[in-house]
Specification:
This protein is of the alpha/beta class. The chain is built from seven helices and eleven strands.
């Protein structure tokens, strides 16, 4: 028996009986500020952008206006056609040349300006990381106040993969020089599009 086995056996033997209940964590209700304003402020502070209102413009035209030089626009949502269809059976490597990826978030978090994506929204998980730019469609009615409320969402328990995306990829050195797009997407744009 190894020392590791001895330690783990001792821990198992000395568990409290009965097991104490897991404490209830309060939801820390948000401020009186409007969720959409708080979401936009947090998104911008993390380097993200809010797309202009559509004003009758369709989503494909919005993508072209936001990224006029984009050669490959790959969409994981039927709301945007893009220029390349997303083949879920293909490996992630085929996404290496994607200029703009478009997905629809399940919900947003006002406190942090984050959007929640899982394998259901992304269809190919690497889409959110290999593209140069990420555009996220978000229903404003699906914004929760804070992370405590976000973690209460049942999808956290059922999704095989889930991520809260907050702004574009970024890194900073010790002198405080911030660089966006260092290891992932160079920009994150959220378009408020009701379902």
């Amino acid at each position: 028996m190894t020392s590791r086995d001895i330690i783990l056996a001792a821990v198992r033997t000395n568990q409290p009986t009965p097991a104490p209940p897991i404490p209830v964590v309060p939801l820390f209700e948000g401020t009186s500020r409007r969720l959409l304003e708080q979401f936009e402020e947090a998104l911008i502070s993390m380097g993200g952008k809010l797309a202009p209102k559509l004003d009758g413009q369709d989503l494909d035209a919005l993508m072209q206006s936001l990224f006029p030089d984009a050669g490959v626009i790959c969409s994981a949502t039927p709301e945007v056609r893009g220029t390349r269809s997303l083949d879920e059976s293909a490996g992630p490597g085929v996404l290496a040349d994607v200029d703009v990826a478009v997905v629809r978030a399940a919900f947003g978090v006002a406190e942090t300006g984050s959007v929640w994506l899982s394998e259901e929204e992304l269809r190919v998980n690497a889409l959110a990381y290999l593209a140069q730019h990420l555009v996220v469609l978000l229903d404003p009615a699906h914004i929760v106040s804070n992370l405590h409320q976000a973690y209460c969402d049942a999808r956290f328990k059922t999704a095989r993969y889930a991520v809260l995306v907050t702004g574009p990829s970024a890194t900073a050195d010790i002198e405080g020089v911030l660089i966006h797009g260092a290891q992932g997407v160079r920009s994150l744009t959220v378009a408020l599009v009701p379902l």
